[in-house]
Amino acid sequence: MSAEPHNAEEQIVGLIARHQPEIHRYVLSLLPDRMLADDVVQETNLVLWRKAAEYDPAQPFLPWAFTIALYQ
Predict the structure, then answer these.
(1) What is the pTM of this model?
(2) 4: which residues sit within 8 A by CB, 6+ positions away?
């Protein structure tokens, strides 16, 4: 059994979990209200998951995630 993700959904969930602190810090830098930032991070997580098939694994994850967070 391989430890590698088998599909885009599994891969994106792993990337979101691994980079959650960076995503949260980025959103907090834009929105100093912690409660609002927490809401935006959750919405960002949902959008990242929904757009999993659009993510190109050959590209860095965080710039893509930060762009999505910015628009949330």
Answers:
(1) 0.86
(2) none
